[in-house]
From TrEMBL:
The gene is Pcdhgc3. Residues 637-650 have a biased composition (Polar residues). Residues 636-655 are annotated as: Disordered. Pfam families: Cadherin, Cadherin_2, Cadherin_C_2. It is a single-pass type I membrane protein. This is PCDGK protein. Gene3D superfamilies: Cadherins (2.60.40.60). InterPro entries: Cadherin-like_dom, Cadherin-like_sf, Cadherin_C, Cadherin_CS, Cadherin_N, Protocadherin/Cadherin-CA. CDD domains: Cadherin_repeat (cd11304). GO terms for cellular component: plasma membrane. The chain crosses the membrane at residues 552-575.
Length: 672
């Protein structure tokens, strides 16, 4: 199941400037057959240098240009994306120009030369600058272009329009005097040389001059005549601006005026052929007339419209069938974590969507909430990775049709772990006053494992990776602790002059950000036998264990429960014995009052079977304290109970009597 790279990947060749660059694929899994889709995002590396269109650029700048004038420069191109793309420009040091780096709407960079100190042709006829383009890689890649500037001798300044082309649109029924556009030009000269007069260019058609008027002082272009879309849909008007100098400077611009159609023409119906009179025997389907309909208006204004009412026949469709959301634990309650989007091609109320959270799990409704109108999913409480890692829920998107149609979208929220739990020491136990002492024999060689510090971290992954270091020791040279396992070893061979008791303070740290830590104390005794250690510990006063009272109460509770159980069982036994003796006495009394069948049938008791209707009176004959019985049917009811018993015995089959006797002989006695 490993996905491997089969050939060198070039992100720029695959996706160009598109970011992110993603390649989709599908995986087929057999037994059972399942289809999975996936995507690989190709991340960009800084493997391309910025490139200028040419290695040299030449500019001609008049010496009369005032400071602050800007001159656009050709931009460099870098096929990388993101931070690896072109980020900035640098200009070589010079006394006249500065560099201003601008950002376009799409995020690309371009540079402009800004004149800071006026030029003087008599002082310097040309300048040589170097423009450098840099990307944002590490280290950055660069490209250079040589800029050659020729300083041109000054002439009078000509007017300049603030834009070369103006665009405007007017409805065809616009009244005369309506403003269409306002053109504007400026001239850097002073006095009459800077005064500007606006006019139509000499090649402007007379028809345009009849439909539009231009104010020579303000540059306002207004409607003068009656426009007709059906006649002309677009007017291209050329205008000019002149100053009032002796040799006037002239600037030109163009105004594109689009005429918008208005539904000012009624449809025209023409009968092109009539079959009249129509014979009375004309067959159904006979052509009577040919009609043609025409409307001079355009687009929607020229259609014969047939309104089609909408039916709610489309269920909402989500942009994706499932969402996976990753939320760090300890989040701020009330934050939005996902926006479920869906569309419905129906119209009006049939396309009005509402979003509902289906609460299959009751806890989901207390933790998550969704905006019914826009599908924004909010997290109401702070999550804990150690409490629950994943939440699964279903969002229903329903339209407003009748009946409504709905689509379900599955959402899985995964809680990512943060390092919010310090390591917890399991051994030696930190929350007890008891002293844990480990023993090492004198003369133990280096590398002998004495004991082990056991700890856990409730976090996950790298945040739960614990390292152990020896923070403090009675003799730092005697013991060492393994960094990752917490095992404590002898660092050297124990000598006779080493102390008998050693205390180690172990520092435990996780690898999260920030790092959380804990510490524990380990006591080690140097002794041949554990008995020696116990002798050394006899002087240590026993700690007051608060759990001894709990143990006492637990033992007392066990004793009371056992006594109650014994008394209950004894009472049940006495009651059973009493019932058995009572039944035995009843049995003996009944045997004395009922007759016994002579001969071999002295083990059979005749017991009345109960009251039934006269025609269905039966008797049941049971053995003494029997667990098996045989049913004998009697002939019709007689008035004498004694006669009834005798009749029943006489009318029984002999074989049946033997069967009853045989059965009675196998039954246990009352004592059994």
């Amino acid at each position: 199941g490993a996905l491997l790279v089969s050939e060198r990947i070039d992100r720029e060749e695959l996706c160009g400037a598109l970011s992110p660059c993603s390649l989709s694929f599908e995986i087929v899994v057999e037994n059972p057959l399942e289809l999975y889709s996936g995507a690989v995002e190709i991340q960009d590396i800084n493997d391309n240098d910025p490139v200028f269109p040419s290695s040299q650029a030449r500019l001609e700048i008049s010496e009369s240009v005032a400071a602050g004038a800007r001159f656009p420069l050709e931009s460099a191109q870098d096929p990388d994306v993101g931070i690896n793309s072109l980020q900035t420009y640098q200009l070589s040091a010079n006394p006249h120009f500065a560099l201003d780096v601008q950002t376009r709407v799409d995020g690309s960079k371009y540079a402009e030369l800004v004149l800071e100190k006026e030029l003087d042709r008599e002082e310097q006829r040309e300048l040589h600058l170097v423009l450098t383009a840099l990307d944002g890689g590490s280290p950055p890649r660069s490209a250079h272009v040589q800029i050659h500037i020729d300083v041109v001798d000054a002439n009078d300044n000509a007017p300049v329009f603030n834009q070369s082309t103006y665009k405007a649109s007017v409805r065809e029924n616009t009244v005369s005097g309506t403003l269409v556009a306002r053109i504007s030009a400026y001239d850097l000269d002073d006095g009459p040389n800077g005064d500007i007069v606006y006019s139509f260019s000499s090649h402007t058609p007379a028809k345009v001059r009849e439909l539009f008027a231009l104010d020579s002082a303000t540059g306002e272009l207004r409607v003068k005549g009656q426009l007709d879309y059906e006649e002309t849909k677009l007017y291209e008007i050329y205008l000019q601006a002149k100053d009032k100098g002796a040799v006037p400077g002239v600037a030109h611009c163009k105004v594109l005026v689009e005429v918008v159609d208005v539904n000012d023409n009624a449809p025209e119906v023409t009968v092109t052929s009539v079959y009249s009179p129509v014979p009375e025997d004309a067959a159904p389907g006979t052509v009577v007339a040919l009609l043609s309909v025409m409307d001079l208006d355009s687009h929607d204004n020229g259609l014969i419209l047939v309104q089609v009412s909408d039916v709610n026949d489309n269920a909402p469709k989500s942009s994706q069938d499932s969402y996976d959301v990753y939320v760090p634990e300890n989040n701020v309650p009330g934050i939005p974590i996902l926006n479920v989007t869906a569309t419905d091609p129906d119209l009006g109320r049939n396309a009005l969507l509402t979003y509902t959270l289906l609460q299959g799990d009751p806890t989901v409704g207390h933790i998550f909430s969704i905006n019914r109108e826009n599908g924004t999913l909010y997290l109401l409480t702070s999550l804990d990775h150690e409490d629950q890692v994943e939440f699964s829920m279903m969002v229903q998107v329903q339209d407003g049709g009748s009946p409504p149609l709905a689509t379900n979208v599955s959402v899985s929220v995964f809680v990512t772990d943060l390092n919010d739990n310090a390591p917890t020491v399991l051994y030696p136990h930190p929350n007890t006053n008891a002293t844990y002492t480990d023993v090492v024999a004198p003369g133990s060689p280096p590398g002998h494992m004495v004991t082990k510090v056991v700890a856990v971290d409730a976090d996950a992954g790298y945040n739960a990776w614990i390292s152990y270091t020896l923070l403090q020791a009675t003799d730092p040279s005697l013991f060492s602790v393994a960094l990752h396992s917490g095992e404590i070893f002898t660092a050297r061979q124990l000598r006779e002059d080493d102390g008998p008791q050693h205390t180690l303070v172990i520092l435990l740290k996780d690898h999260g950000e920030p790092v959380l830590s804990a510490s524990t104390t380990v006591s080690i005794s140097v002794a041949e036998m554990v008995k020696e250690v116990l002798t050394d510990l006899t002087d240590v006063a026993p700690a007051n264990d608060p759990r001894k009272h709990v143990t006492f109460y637990l033992i007392l509770a066990v004793i009371l429960v056992s006594a109650a159980f014994f008394i209950t069982m004894l009472s049940v036994g006495i009651f059973k014995c009493y019932k058995w003796r009572q039944s035995k006495e009843l049995f003996n009394s009944s045997r004395s009052t009922l007759y016994r069948t002579p001969g071999p049938f002295h083990h059979i008791d005749a017991v009345r079977g109960g009251l039934t209707p006269p025609n269905f009176y039966h008797q049941v004959y049971l053995t003494t304290d029997s667990r098996q019985s045989d049913l004998l049917c009697k002939k019709p009811f007689t008035s004498s109970p004694l006669g009834s018993r005798q009749s029943t015995m006489r009318n029984g089959e002999p074989g049946l009597y033997h069967q009853i006797v045989g059965t009675a002989s196998q039954l246990p006695t009352p004592a059994e």
